[in-house]
Every structure is written in C-alpha cells, then in structure tokens.
Specification:
The protein is an alpha/beta fold and about 700 residues long. The chain has 24 helices and 23 strands.
Length: about 700
C-alpha cells in the first residue's frame, strides 16, 4: 500500500506559527490538512463560548422564545417528546430539567420497545387529556405534519426542535428550530438536536436580560484622510440587523447626512468614549450640536479593567476578531464585539448556564457523528471538561461502571465507551432508563446497573449476529451490482440494525441496509459511505414506508410485512443508478512524518490541544522510520491480532496491530527495522494506563 504524507514547506510553518501563535507541530498538522481559512481556524484555536453563534440567528427563535416565556408566565403543562438514541435522550433530559427548574410541570416521553419513531397521534391524545397545552419535540417532529395538526385541533401548540432533513412539507408548528429547514438563515447546519435545545435554552436565558427585543444602534465616528467616517450598526438581541457607513468630506451632500440621521433615529444610540465621539460629531454637524447618546465605556471598564483608556482602534490591533477574519475588520466591528462581551458580562447567568449544559451537548454531538467543525468544536471541547469532572450524579454512576471515573475523557473514549452504553438503552428498547438517570428520577445506582447490563447484552447480540450476517451481506453485493449490501436475518435484534449496518459499510465499502423482523412490520437501518446520501435515496421508497428519516450519513425506516419483496425489487433497480465516490484502499493518507526522537509521550499533550477529534477531523495519523520490532505476539479469541513492542528513538512502545496476524512473520519479523504508520492513544486497564500505538500499517525499511 502506498503511503501519502503531505509535504509542508518550512517557511509556511514559520509564517503560520507567527500569525496564529501555534507551535510548529500544530501548524504543520493544520497546514497538512488544508485548514487555512481564518474563520475556520478560529474554532480550532479557541474555546471561548462567546464565539458561539447567537441563537437568535435562527429565523424562528423569537417565536420559540416568546412561546416558552408565555408558558412560564401562565404555568402551563408541557410535554417534551424525544427519541431513543443518545442525541434524543440528552435532548429530552436537558429540556425537561431546564423547564422544571423554571417551575413548570413537565411530562416526557421517548419511544419504547418497538414503538415507532416520532410523535404519535395516541401520544397527543393522551396528553391532551392531561391538559398539556404545549408539546416540544426534540430530535424528531420535522415529519409529524398530521400529529402537529391534530395537536392544534386539540388546543395544543407545538415547538419542533429537530435536525433531521425535512421533507417537501413541514408541520404547521408555532416554531421550528431546524438548521436544515428551507430558507433558514442560521450560519451552520451541523448541529445535533441537543445542541439545538442548548440554543433554545440560551435564547430563553437571554430573554431575561434587559436587552431582549431591544433595538439599539452602536455608533462610531473616526477621522479619515481629510474626512470623517461615520459607521453605525443596528442590533436586536445582539444580532446585527443592518449597518451603514458614510464618508464625509467638504463636498458631502445633505443626502448622506439624512441617511445617517434616518438610520440612527428612534432608538437608543450607544457609543464608546463619548467625549471623542461628540467632538467628531460637532466637527461634522456644527459646534452647537447635541445628540443623546449612551456611553458604554465606563461600564465596560468596570467589567474589563485592562481596557481602561484604550481606543477601539488599539483594541482591534491585538484582537482575535482581526486575527481570525479574512475580510478587513473595522473599528465598528470591534465596538460591536465589545458591546456583546459587556452585555454577557453584565448578565453572567447566561454564560454560566451555557457552560453547565455542555456536557450533555457534547455527548449528543459526538454520538450523532456531527461534524467537529465550526462552533461544534467549542461546545464539545468545553463539554469534555465537564464530562471528565463528572458533575451530574447519574452520569458519575454510569462512568464508574464503565471504569472511566477519575480519567480524562478524550473524544475517542467518549465515542467508543460512554455514548454506546447510553445508546444501548434505546437499542434494547429502554431509553427511559437513560433519561431517568440523567434526570435523577429514581435510584441512580440501580439505573446505572441496568444500563450497564443492557450494554453488555447489546454487545453480545451484536457479536452473535455479526458472524451470521457477513456471508449474506457479501452475497447480496452481486444482486445489487456491487453498489450496496442488504441483510435480513432472523438473528437480528431491532436494536442492533444500526451497529451492524455501520460495520458492514466499513467492511464492504458500500452503503449497507440491515432489516429486522418485528412480526407486525419490518424495521431497518442504513449507513452511508463514499458520499452516498441516505435520506435522498430513501425518499424514492416513501410510498412503501410507514415512516422514514435521518441524515445524509444514516437513516432508518419501517414498512409493512407485505411490502418486503416490492422493496427489495425496487432497491435492486435503484442500485444500478447509485454513484459512489472512489475507494481509498489504494493509498494510505497520513498527517505527519515524525523522526524517531519525536515519538514521545508529549504526543498525548499535542493531541489533547487539538481535541475534539472525530467526524470531519479524524484521529491524527503519524508515520516514523527506524522502528525496531523487539517482540510480537498473536492475540485475540480468534488469534487474528498482533501485540508488538517497538523500539523507537529513546523509548520502547507497546503497540497493537488489529486483524493483521497473517502478516507476521511473512511481511516482517522480529528484529526487523521497519516504517510504521500509527495513531497514539492512552490504553486503560483497571486502575492503570499507558500510552500505546495503534498500528495502521508496517513496511520494511
């Protein structure tokens, strides 16, 4: 196999490090991965939650917030309806706990056992009888047109908080918070449902501040070349609504002046350093000019003493705003950012609540394989700190059962060990256990025990089914023109269809469909690979399905038993038109070529600085030369793996080489000097741990 390692110019590394203050290895990695845009780098090199997008950038967030405020004022009864996976479970727990903290009576439901996905008519009817007047769906609802209409006819309003791809039509809800909705203006689509709940709750906190729904103008004048430049930005809920810039010289017209006056009239006008601003205004309009402005500088300096006496220009010169923008940044931009920071500082509860919720947010983002880009990076990084500190008693109990207590949790550990245990509750038909654990409803020790056992049962079922489905999956490739795999087998439990589909997709390098028989109907999962868009493809079979949904990378569906043959026949016809991206088997793409002396335990700290890693920012892949094989053992129940001891530089490294026992001693032998491609991780065993290499490939030097 050919290895590809990007060649990064030394001068590029020095320039990058000089601009962004990064160490050479970090600079080299980011350059190698072509992460170059300042706006993108902002989220890799910062973890300040004030950099998260304003929730009021959602086009219907004001409608959502006003409806929640009304529910709080009236003391309404609310139903939160979620989903059975980690994202749905954390979404449900986060929304329920927040509304209960506000004093509301809140019911919650998640699909149990073989229940269908999404809100059901009988659920609406059940809670209408309990005088519920508001239903909030989380991680579902975007397809519940009929159910939302039925709720409306029963006098119940609905708020939809969902991130799944919408269909041609959407429910007629009071508000829909979905970054993928047609016409939505929010700047980032990669949020999971629990991240959307986080946004809604942040907006609700902002609604308690004195700036909620207040429109005000930030005005800044600055001298130019024989001119005065007037800049103004109009803000509502700290979101920029519009701006104006006018340059006044001796020949400036009254039309210019009227444009400025019209823009700033009928609202509060905020300025920074009033004396400077009024002096420039009087130069422009005449010495007797009086303009009512509110100077924020004194209040800003109380909150941020280090800024006392500094001009906006001086702040701008050393600011992150300037460093992480590819466009010219003006003084007015620094002023707006200063104003936003000041208002957050004046209302500290907003940021405190945001931070406290990010542990659950990070679980949902990681488990749902959301892109670890943009604001997701900050939310997950901050959330990982909370998860390692284990602030929630219920999570502490579960983390203890998993042997992870008092350990620093990496994104890899969370995705491989913690989220699968929570997910197992939904897969095994008891997602309510995980919701109760997070809400601390009941004996959390017993709940953690039950969840741990369900996870063990799920792993056993998965291992048993895996061996049974592989032959069928490989055989199905021929039927479907090598474009997809389809498996139906009596041993498949409905709770493991997604796991099996994911494993088959990775093994066979084609999209995989796995179907379980529930006697009354069939339930299936599909997982994508090589650029296959799941929900677009499933829409071709919407006339057969009772329900379906998902994302570009994963989806689910169910249909009546009598449609099985029709479905598989049409799937076979559709497979001929599937276009997949090319396989990547021919070459191994690596990130960094390290000399042996740089393969040290300091790589752990280097990797921690680049957390989180996962979807769209994968594990860092290294290579090194002159590694000597000092020991090699065949391990595993099926004797298919290798455990090695490698002498690299000044250290001997334990290493594992999965599914590669057949390569020893054919491709390499003891005492050989080899090149290694690998990742680095901390391996925990009992109360001990060590750093180890996970070998991707070995070549003789």
């Amino acid at each position: 196999m050919e290895w590809n390692v990007p060649n990064v110019d030394k001068e590029e590394i020095e320039l990058f490090s000089g601009k962004y203050g990064t160490d050479p290895l970090t600079s080299r990695l980011l350059l190698a991965r072509n992460i170059l845009e300042p706006e993108t780098l902002k989220y890799f090199l910062n973890d300040d939650i004030r950099l998260l997008h304003n929730p009021f950038l959602f086009s219907q967030m004001d409608l959502c917030t006003d409806r929640l405020l009304n529910a709080l004022e009236e003391g309404e009864k609310v139903l939160v309806f979620g989903d059975r996976d980690v994202d749905g479970i954390t979404s449900t727990a986060l929304m329920v706990s927040a509304l209960r903290d506000e004093g509301l009576e809140v019911f919650w439901e998640v699909p149990m056992g073989d229940d269908h996905y999404g809100l059901q008519l009988e659920t609406v009817e059940k809670y209408a009888a309990r005088d519920v007047s508001l239903i909030i769906t989380v991680d579902c609802g975007i397809g519940n047109i009929r159910e939302v209409e039925f709720a409306r006819s029963a006098g119940i309003d609905s708020i939809i908080i969902d991130h799944h791809n919408p269909g041609e039509y959407q429910p007629d809800a009071t508000a829909i918070i979905n970054p993928k909705s047609p016409g939505e203006t929010y700047p980032f689509q990669g949020l999971s449902a629990v991240a959307l709940v986080f946004k809604v709750l942040t907006a609700l906190d902002m609604a308690r501040s004195d700036f909620y729904n207040q429109v005000f103008c930030f005005l800044n004048l600055r001298p130019g070349n024989d001119s005065i430049i007037v800049e103004a930005v109009k803000l509502s809920n700290l979101v920029e609504q519009s701006r104006i810039t006018e340059t006044f010289v001796n020949s400036s017209s009254e039309v210019q002046l009227m444009r400025v006056i019209d823009f700033i009239s009928d609202q509060a006008i905020l300025v920074y350093q009033e004396d400077v601003q009024l002096k420039l205004l009087r130069q422009l309009l005449g010495p007797g000019t009086e303009v009512a402005v509110q100077d924020i500088s004194q209040e800003v300096w109380k909150q941020f003493p280090a800024l006392k006496g500094k001009s906006l220009l001086r702040m701008l010169q050393g600011s992150k705003l300037n460093k992480f923008s590819s466009k010219p940044v003006q003084e007015i931009d620094a002023g707006v950012q200063l104003l936003v920071s000041y208002l957050y500082a004046k209302n500290p509860g907003i940021l405190q609540n945001m931070k406290s919720r990010l542990d659950l947010v990070s679980l949902g983002l990681i488990a749902d394989m959301m892109p670890l880009l943009n604001e997701n990076r900050i939310m997950v990084k901050q959330g990982m700190k909370l998860l390692s500190a284990v602030r929630r008693p219920g999570l502490r109990e579960l983390i203890a059962r998993l042997g992870l207590l008092n350990k620093s949790l990496s994104s890899q550990t969370i995705s491989w060990k913690l989220t699968p245990a929570i997910n197992a509750t939904g897969r095994m038909g008891r997602p309510d256990l995980a919701v109760k654990l997070l809400l601390e409803e009941g004996d959390i020790s017993s709940l953690a025990d039950e969840i741990y056992q369900l996870n063990e049962d799920r792993k056993r079922l998965g291992n048993e089914a895996w061996e049974a489905v592989i032959p069928d999956a490989k055989e199905s490739l021929e039927r479907f023109d090598g474009k997809l795999a389809l498996v139906y087998h009596p041993s498949i439990h409905r709770g493991i269809t997604g796991i099996l589909a994911g494993r088959l997709a990775r093994l066979l390098q084609v999209p995989a469909f796995v179907i379980a028989d529930l006697n009354s109907h069939y339930v299936g999962s599909v997982r994508s690979i090589r650029g296959f868009h799941v929900t677009d493809f499933l829409s071709r079979f919407s006339d057969l399905f009772d329900d379906y949904g998902g994302h570009d990378a994963a989806g689910g569906f169910h249909f009546p038993r009598d449609q099985f043959d029709t479905f598989t026949q049409r799937l076979e016809e559709a497979a001929a038109f599937i276009e997949l991206d090319e396989k990547q088997d021919a070459a191994l793409d690596l990130d960094l070529h390290l000399p042996p002396e740089m393969v040290t335990e300091q790589l752990e700290q280097f990797q921690a600085s680049l957390e989180p890693r996962g979807m769209d920012f994968q594990e860092i892949r290294y290579m090194t030369s002159s590694a000597k094989i000092e020991n090699c053992q065949v391990i595993g129940k099926d004797q298919s793996h290798l455990r090695l001891l490698l002498n690299i530089g000044k250290r001997k490294w334990p290493a594992v080489f999965w599914s590669s026992a057949d390569r020893f001693p054919n491709d390499f032998q003891l005492q050989d000097t080899v090149q290694c491609a690998f990742t680095v991780e901390r391996n925990y065993f009992g109360s001990n741990s060590n750093m180890q290499l996970n070998i991707i490939d070995i070549q003789r030097s």
